[in-house]
Specification:
Blueprint: E1 11-14, H1 24-51, H2 59-83, E2 93-94, H3 95-128, H4 133-136, H5 139-165, E3 174-175, H6 182-186, H7 194-227, H8 232-260, H9 268-291, H10 294-304, H11 310-319
Parallel strand pairs: 1-3
Antiparallel strand pairs: 1-2
GO molecular function: G protein-coupled receptor activity; olfactory receptor activity
InterPro entries: GPCR_Rhodpsn (IPR000276), GPCR_Rhodpsn_7TM (IPR017452), Olfact_rcpt (IPR000725)
Domain G-protein coupled receptors family 1 profile: 41-289
Length: 320
Amino acid sequence: MERVNSTSLTEFILTGIPYPLRLRTFLFVFFLLIYILTQLGNLLILVTVWVDPQLHARPMYIFLGVLSVIDMGISTIIVPRLMMNFTLGIKPIPFGGCVAQLYFYHFLGSTQCFLYTLMAYDRYLAICQPLRYHILMNAKLSTLLVTGAWVAGSIHGALQAILTFRLPYCGPNQVDYFFCDIPAVLRLACTDTTVNEQVTFVDIGVVVATCFSLILLSYVQITQAILRIRTTDGRRRAFSTCGAHVTVVTVYYVPCAFIYLRPETNSPLDGAAALFPTAITPFLNPLIYTLRNQEVKLALKRMIGVPCSRSEVGFQKKFL
């Protein structure tokens, strides 16, 4: 591909998200609280899974602990830089910093997609193959699956970063976004980006569509199995183990599909949609998994020494 004979950029300026100036302090404090609560909430989940002997040996909660690590990472990559948009002065990001931000965001984001798929498969085995569950899914296998998700995510992130930054960037250097993401950065390239856009669409489309299809297939089978359970209490307990996962998958996949799997536009809604997978979802995940997952709530009570009620003890004996 022919390169433009011009000086390469050494830094980018992130314009951030549009906002009224009178809300600058409020938005800075808001996203600071979001970031702090995200880190604390996910750290609490991670510690609970690690400390509680009834959780850390179970594949479902190994996946949940890894999800917390990913959420903490995505939030750290994006939110502090977003907060700088609400401070005075122009604070450019170095070219290498932009490369790193794009790589780690797509590395962790794609790993999260793979992890959601593994979590759905785990729930499928637990509900549809309960007698063979401990044979088909154990701690060793779940560790291997998580390792595979990390490796695949790393390859995906590297591919996207290499394809994006192999192009020449000679100016302007203003990224009309709040972080270095593929669509916004490609607009600044000094050459035709059609091939990059097509490869990005196909690559991300394959990852998202494949993972979502497998998750959907798992939950079709899960729903059929739950409906065959005769007791109301049994159906309720089965749905309670899946409700949290369905909620976080929906909150994550819908904005991602809106951003990457549609014709190229420069809509203000892109930034609003991107706040979900980068800031809102990592913040909500600990709340969803503690409010909707009875086992996590019981583990938290055991960890801090709060006695469980009689009904909670009964649930624990029946479910574990």
